[in-house]
Design a protein that fits this description.
Length: 206
């Protein structure tokens, strides 16, 4: 005579089945390393050249799930007063009210809204950039370079290279329209240290 399975047997069966399913790894959180994270930009100078400038990331975090990129996100602050055009007088001129107005707007802030994966190592980060008193959507194409331990073994690093483009006039930066181009090309080199290890951020160089 067949006996109906007991409650204990059913519970054990369901528990065993659940344990057999692959676990979904949690997304790790990283803090940007300001030493190894930089922003480089280029803009047309009256058709003669496209000079380069550099800005520093003041702070920020990223959450990255290598198995499910849609669970990833980031926020970061850019120090506009760190502007480096290669010449002190030029830096001062670009930071004046007619252009970046670094005194009134000392920082810019980017917040991601979604992440789109395009292949094994590339994706597009969609988000909003707040700069110069204006908020505009910005898409950042990126490549995942490497996620792993450093050669010294102290930190777990997530490294990315990225590119973006924006129209400065969309942010109300309208000065010198006949001498300075509207379209700005941007390159980002980013490294994040896994959050649990940021207390040792200054103990490993280069």
């Amino acid at each position: 005579m067949n006996r109906a399975p007991t409650y204990a047997a059913l519970t054990f069966a369901f528990s065993a089945a659940a344990m057999a399913l692959p676990a979904h790894a949690a997304a790790d959180t990283y803090r940007y390393d300001p030493v190894h994270s930089q922003i480089v930009f280029s803009i047309d100078h009256d058709g003669f050249s496209r000079p380069l400038g550099r800005l520093h990331i003041a702070s920020g975090w990223l959450r990255f799930d290598p198995d499910d990129w849609t669970r990833s996100a980031t926020e970061l602050d850019i120090d506009m007063r760190s502007l480096d055009m290669g010449d002190a007088a030029w830096n001062e001129a670009v930071c004046k009210a007619s252009l970046l107005d670094c005194k009134t707007y000392p920082s810019a802030h980017f917040t991601s809204t979604s992440v789109q994966r395009t292949d094994a190592t590339h994706g597009v980060l969609h988000g909003t950039l707040q700069m110069h008193g204006s908020s505009q959507p910005v898409d950042i194409a990126f490549r995942v370079n490497r996620v792993g331990k450093t050669i010294y073994g102290l930190h777990t690093i997530a490294g990315f290279s990225a590119t973006a483009a924006l129209d400065r006039t969309a942010f109300g930066i309208n000065g010198f329209p006949n001498a300075i181009g509207h379209n700005v090309a941007i390159w980002l080199e980013l490294e994040g240290i896994r959050d649990s290890q940021t207390s040792t951020v200054n103990k490993e160089h280069p």
